[in-house]
Amino acid sequence: MRIESEAGLRTLQAAGIQKLKPKQPRIAVGLATCGAAVGGRKVYESLREAIDRAGADIDLVTVGCIGYCREEPLVNITIPQKPLVILHRVSEADADEIVHSVMDDQVPEDKALCRVPSWDHVTGVVMQYGKGFANIPLYEDVPFFAPQRKVILRNAGFINPEEISEYFAIGGYAAAWKALHGMQPEAIIAEVEKSGLRGRGGAGFPTGLKWRITRDAPGGTDKYLICNGDEGDPGAYMNRNEMESDPHMLIEGMIIGAYAMGLKNGLIYIRSEYPLAIERLGTAIRQAREYGLLGDNIMGTGFSFDIRITRGAGAFVCGESTALVASIEGRTGRPHPRPPRLTDPEGGLFKKPSDLNNVETWCNVPAIVANGSGWYAALGAANNTGTKVFSLVGKVDRVGLVEVPLGTTITTIVFDAGNGGANGKKVKAVQTGGPSGGCIPLRLFDTPVDFESLNRAGTIMGSGGIVVMDEDTDMVDIARYFTGFATGESCGKCVPCREGLKHTLLLINRIQAGKATGKDLAILQEVCETIAATSLCGLGQTAPNPVLTTLSYFREEYEAKVRP
Amino acid sequence: MTHGSSEQNDVPEKPVIITINGRPCRAGKGETVLAVAIREGIPVPHLCHEESLAPYGACRLCLVEAGKPGKTEMTTACTLKAADGLEVITDTPQIVKHRSILFELYLAEAPKSEVIKEMAARYGVTKTRFLKKMETDDPLSEKCVLCGLCVRVCNEIMGAGAINFINRGPYTVVNTPFLEPSADCYGCGACVKVCPTHAVVMEEAGSERVMRSWSGTRVPLAACSCCGMYYAPRELAARTLAALDPHLDQDLAGLCPACRGKRIAEREILARQGGAGNHA
Ligand SMILES: Cc1cc2nc3c(=O)[nH]c(=O)nc-3n(C[C@H](O)[C@H](O)[C@H](O)COP(=O)(O)O)c2cc1C
Ligand code: SF4
Ligand code: FES
Fold first, then answer.
1. Cβ–ligand 3 contact at B57 (below 6 Å)
2. For A136, how many CA atoms within 13 A lie in the half-sphere containing its CB?
3. CATH topology of domain B11-91
4. Which candidate from A490, A494, A503 shows the least CB-CB separation from B58?
5. What pTM value is reported for the model?
């Protein structure tokens, strides 16, 4: 079963395509956590029963999520020679109708969201499905999808995340083959550097540079490569979907990174609140080992690398690099001052130099290796290359995961993809970057979403959560919500964050209770500036952003609540 | 810094000179800016620094402006290693502003602490605009500022691990697990000694030492076999004696320090006189 030749990989790919486009029709139910939450499992079970009742020759499988959360449960139908059709808002009651249509090579068109005649899986494979169903809109004409460019979510919702063969089908592990068999580690790092890829965990640190520092650190192969899957900001769930919908993409990225950095230990840190991601990654790691893609002598190259999963207890602060290491080592998740950084010998996991990258950062790697740095650098904007997945949530009409090139404006994301406010309400602002970010008012929606422009607006990219607020939203209450979150998640080590945030919350509560004066507003501003300037770690340094940005952009809302 | 290619071992390392508030100061290898300032008598407030422990950076009071000329940033002096040519300023308007807020936060957090009041007053802060913490029955007498020193000496130096942080964020407190008397506490009192605000309370009660702040943990004391005075936690004394190499004589082992001194002096005298004195 071990892959030791390119021909072997191609044989597996051909076998995988037989699963994606079998001779018989295939029905695939979107079952990431989001799909399951709105009844996807019941839909799956009733489809199972309906197929059995009809004695139909139809494959029924699970896929991940294509990201259009508002329309779930989503069900894909693949009929030979026909376009893949995505059905939306499917319920248990629809099962018999769906199965009977499919038996007649038809789909229930009133349930169809769109059709996909062919799909570019980015890593070298364009899956041709077929023609027909002209009455059903094309994927690219669906307004939610139209502004999107799927690179990271290239396979999400199309392949079964529990079947490595379907990952082979779309060209999976070909990038790892190319890297391990055809490229020097140094060349891979140079390629990642040239691609301009910057970390998707929030700070936007150049990934290639971090790899180079890790590679050059002393310690031979006994270093750690860590994937940060802690994803703790309220409103952010792209990493969860990436892990649940396409776990092998992450693993392949990590294999390539490990080879480039010349290290043998890999670790994925995931919060325990993500049981399905943990389960699917566990399955994917086992499968990758069976095929000789992890473990000793990967793909017959003599290179060895393996991945373990570590579960976190779900503390936001454990996403911070030094707290994350403490947590993995079994200590309390409290940050320590840097340096030493993780890449330093004394600062890494178990005192070994360590590279830490976000889930989505890793997911970009196979695409970069497969298509080259030039292709990647042409996506997005200067110095902000590539695409980014945003979770568009809150009071927006179309809730879901939106993947767009960096540099896309907030307007495009919120109005073109998201269709503005839910229930026809007027949008007033968005919060990006979760509790570490800030609010951007409507008048600044021309701001391109890139690391620097967001910083200039007083907020941050963070992991990519975008929470929409409408005319009914009380901005002071928004500030209170995020401050409350940060206060509860503060580790309590340093005084500005521990005590400062507590008093910030007390002050906002006073304002909300109508008991505050103008003086309290001044204290609020002062204490927030000190928290930002003097906290030990990124949590405290950024936690005042929701207050500071609402104070500056929506001051009138505060002033209306305080006595002079 | 390397200069020249054929450095010999006996060539002394180039001394590290930093300037603090314009004054050149010599720094030892690996020394922190805070350690240099303390040695030079330059006032930099600090609560969580302890020479024998690794830099921790929790109290955030030791803010300084530091860097190369023209390219400085505000940082904590206790976590900043002295590098040659480093320029440090201890009181910029920005530092004064932030430090004052931090002192106000401390005054609200530990309203009963005289140490904090005096320290804040030295930097011009005598009042806090924040709501003062009110707690009844605080085992740390409303004086704890969570600097972490007690926890760290207990864990990292004594290796006892009797106390630790409980909860997180503003709910953080220091105490024993489950707020129960600790079986791991040696009663060594290092926590008492290291606490900058004198928050940790320890008492002697006859044959026991009572760690009032640590859930009333009681530690039996050893009595001097000569004068009967209780002189040290029993288990800690036994462990310390067991670790001595060479071992202490049997007849010295059970004595309090005063009696031990006396006994040693007696022996010296006996040895010199070559026999039993008549004035013992
Ligand atoms: C409070 C806090 C929480 C964080 N949470 C996460 C997280 O959930 N996921 C993540 O990838 N990075 C998180 N980070 C950023 C990480 O410390 C680190 O910068 C990142 O994982 C590096 O990966 P990248 O270079 O690929 O972005 C957090 C940082 C802070 C200060
Ligand atoms: S800023 Fe907050 S989370 Fe970070 S070390 Fe300080 S108290 Fe802990
Ligand atoms: S002494 Fe530097 S932060 Fe406490």
1. yes
2. 24
3. Ubiquitin-like (UB roll) (3.10.20)
4. A494
5. 0.92
